[in-house]
Amino acid sequence: MKIMLTCAGRRNYLARFVKEVLGTRGQVIACDASDSAPAFVESDLWFTVPPLDHPHYLDELLSICREQRVRLLLSVNDLELEGLARRAPEFRAVGTIPVVSSPQVIALCQDKWAAFQFLRACDIPTPDTYSSLSDVRQALANGAISFPLMLKPRWGTSSIGVEYIDNERELVLAYEWGKVHLQRTIIARLSQADPDSCFVFQKYVPGKEYGLDIVNDLNGTHVCTWARRKLVMRAGNTDRACTVVEPRLARLGEVIGRRLSHVGCLDCDLIVTDNACQVLDLNPRLGGGYPFSHLAGANLPAMLLAWASEAELDPSWLEPRAGVLSSKYDGVVVVNRQVPIGIPTTAEDHSPPSLPAPSPPLLQGQSAG
C-alpha cells in the first residue's frame, strides 16, 4: 500500500501521521516542486515535480501513481483541487484513489459567493455577504449592514488579500489596492474566470472562532465531525487550538456533510456566539487544523486506509478527546547533506532575492478562509 502526499512542503507531521498508520504495510510518497521540501525527510519515497501552474503537473503526478502503484492520493493545497477533481477518473483508471470531491463541490466551496448562497439555501447561518462594491455600498446606505466589514478574494486561500474595513474611505482604498495586489499573488489565476467580481464583502462577526473537520467517506457519506476552538492564528492557519466535543457543532457538520456529499475531510471555519454558529468558509480538503484533532485521538489516515482496503473502522478513530490543547512550532531538519552552494562572484549575484508580499495580519474573531 502506497499513499502519496502532494504539495508536501513543510507538512512533516502529515507524512509522519500516515507513516505511523502504514507501519510495515506500505510506504509514504511525498511530492513537491522544491527538491528541499522538509516533508521529504519523513517520507519513504519522494519526487520533485513541476510547479502547480505547469501544464504537465498533473501528468507527472499521474505518471508517478502509475509507476509506483499508488493506492491513495492526498492533497492539502487549494490550488490543485480543481485539476485533480477534473482528472480524477484518470487516476482511478491506474488504481489510485484521489481523495478529492467532485468538480461541482470543489467549485462551490472555492467560490465564496457560491458558498454563501449554498449555506443560505440550507438555512445554515452565515454572515451577510455581497459580491460587488455597488451592492455593499447600497446595503450600507439603506442600513442593511454597518461597518466593520471583511474584504476577501472571492477565490482565495491562506488569508491572501484579506482586509478589515472600518469606514467608507477604507472600503474604497482596500478594494482598489486589492485589485492590484491580487494580480501579484499565487491566487491571481483563480480570479481569471470573473475578474470584475473577484472580491466579496462580508459582515464582520465578533465571537469565538472554531474549526471543524467534517469527515465523509470515499462515497461522500457523512461519518463524523471533529471540532476545535482556535486560540492563535498565523498567516491564515491555525497555530494553537483546543479540541471540544459540542453537540451543536456536530449537528452542523452533519448537515453540511450530508448536503455537500464531499469526499474525505472538509475544513470549515465558523464563529460561535451565545446564540448561533455562523459559518465563514468551506475548504474541501484536509486543512491545517486537522493535526489538533489527530493529536487528540482522531485518525483520518487510518480511516482512509480502511476505506481503500474495504476494512472495518476502529470506533476509537472517530472520537478525539475533548480539552486537548496543542500547538504547532518551528523545527529544523537536514534535507540533503551534499548540495553544493557556490559563492557569488559578480556584483549582480549580491542583489537581494525578491520576496513575496507579507500576508495581512488576521484579527481575532474572524477567519480569513
Give a description of the structure.
There is one protein chain. The chain has 369 residues and is an alpha/beta fold. The protein has helices at 12-22, 57-68, 78-86, 88-93, 103-110, 112-121, 133-141, 168-182, 247-260, 290-295, 300-309, and strands at 2-5, 27-32, 45-48, 72-74, 97-98, 129-130, 149-153, 163-165, 199-203, 208-216, 222-234, 237-244, 265-272, 277-283, 325-327. The chain has a 6-stranded antiparallel sheet with strand order 14-13-10-11-12-15. Strands 3-2-1-4-5 form a 5-stranded parallel sheet, with helices on both faces. The protein has a 4-stranded antiparallel sheet with strand order 6-9-7-8, with helices on both faces. The longest helix is centred in the middle third of the chain and has 15 residues, at 168-182. It is globular. The relative contact order is 0.13.
